[in-house]
Amino acid sequence: MKKIFILLILSLAIQYSFGQACGIYRIKYVGSLKSKSLKIEKIKLPTIEFLHGLENEYTEKSFIEIELNSHQINTELNSPLTSHLYGKAESLLQFYKTQRESIPLIILVTENETTREIRKALNWNSIQISKLEDDNFGNLFELNLNEIDIDNKNQEEKYPWDNVVTKVAINAIHLSINNFVNKIRDENFPSSPGPFNF
Length: 198
Fold this sequence. Notes:
Mean pLDDT: 78
Distance between the termini: 80 Å
Radius of gyration: 24 Å
Shape: extended
Oligomer: single chain
Number of helices: 4
Helix content: 25-40%
Strand content: 25-35%
């Protein structure tokens, strides 16, 4: 019995040390939603992979869709293995800020029997992050989104493109202009040497 007890303690110690060494942690999203005119159905929250910059907004692993209980947000996510060790809430928040200027949310609402998505972008300064103590594996951090007013247009994410998508769009515009200019050149100056680059 004594040996079993020692082995159990040793096993728990190894698991705890492994989790801390690998930087495994958990996030608990809390907050609430409100709207005077819309029926709130669900919300899509950023995954930890997304917050770490490993995913962009257009991949399947970027957001996790959750059901709401009386418009309340209360869900916990586990992090993937990472080389970073986060023991302080302030360090984790500073890291998130280096990845994005704001935290995006996607809210599913129903209006006139039609379901649509509303994108919100919350400023990091409006969010509180704190470390919680529990007996489970890995550090636990609470991300408090506070009360989100869906009717507030100021929080809407009007341009949810990341840098990669922006560059692709700009390149496509330049290519279209170049093709148009070259077409005009070929029609009016067929003997002109070489393409014209915009």
